[in-house]
Amino acid sequence: MSTATNVDAIAVNTIAWLAAPETTIVVPVYQRQYRWDIGGCEQLLGDIRAVSDTDDRHRHFIGSILSTGADAEDDAELVLIDGQQRITTLMLLVAALRHTVGDSDPELAAELERVLVRASDPTRTKLRPHKAWAEVFEDVVLDRADGGGDADADGRGGQDGHEPAGSRRALRDSRFDDNYAFFRSQVGADEVRRIWAGLQKLEHVAITLGPDANAQQIFESLNSTGEPLRDHELIHNYVLMGLSHAEQSEIEDEYWLPIEASTGEAIASFWRHYLVMKTGREVIVVGERGVYDAFRQEFPRLELASLREHAAEWRDYAGAYAVILDPALEPDPEISRQLAYLGTFGRGMAPLVMRAYLEYRRSEATAADLVGLLELLQSLLLRREVSGLGNDRLVARLTRAREHGHEALVRAIGRITPSDERVRVALKYSELPHAAYVLDRIARAAAEDAAGTDLGINPVTDLGIDLVLDHVFPLAPSDAWSGDGLRAWAEYTDDEQNSHRALAQTLGNLTLVEEALADRALEESYPGKRELYARSGVGITRELAGTPAWGTAAIAARTARLAEVFLRVWARPAKVVIDDDNLTPVLDAVKRRGWPRGWEREFEYVEYRGEHWEVYDVKYLFNRVFKRLWADSRESVVAFSAHRGGPIYDAQSWNGQWDQLDETHFLYMGWDSKYMLTAVQGVLEEAGFASEVFVKYSYFGAVM
Question: pLDDT by residue (tens digit) across 386-401?
Answer without folding.
Answer: 988 888 889 999 999 9
